[in-house]
Design brief:
The chain is mostly helical. Helix content is 46%, strand content 11%. Strands 1-2-3 form a three-stranded parallel sheet. Helix 2 (29-42) packs parallel to helix 3 (57-65) and helix 4 (78-87) crosses helix 5 (97-108).
Length: 111
């Protein structure tokens, strides 16, 4: 039996999936991210995870307005990692921690 978790879907799945959240069908990625930020804040979460490729400048600002931190996931490159930081994310999940640390040290130093 296949298990379904609404937490395992990304923004574009949510936009396309009528059974997931019908009210989000046709919504922009920004509106979908705002919706889930609001849901997380209302549930008492402290942070949200956003796929790196879908992170928008408005996402971190909207989350911060709701006292939520943003972490990126699905980070494929050092450029993605630094872009997440520039957009306001507080952290990221990577499969390559050594290279990620090198990128951080290269950009910000070792302090």
């Amino acid at each position: 039996r296949e298990r379904f978790s609404e937490h395992s879907r990304d923004t574009f799945d949510a936009v396309r999936s009528a059974e997931f959240r019908p009210e989000l069908i046709g919504a922009s990625p920004e509106k979908v991210q705002q919706y889930w930020s609001d849901q997380a804040a209302n549930a008492g979460f402290q942070q949200i995870g956003v796929r790196a490729a879908e992170m928008l400048p408005q996402t971190a600002a909207h989350a911060a307005d709701r006292s939520l931190a943003v972490r990126g996931w699905g980070v494929r490159s050092a450029e993605d990692l630094l872009q997440l930081y520039n957009l306001g994310a507080i952290g990221a999940t990577v499969d390559w921690p050594g290279r990620a640390l090198e990128a951080i040290h290269s950009r910000f130093g070792r302090g």
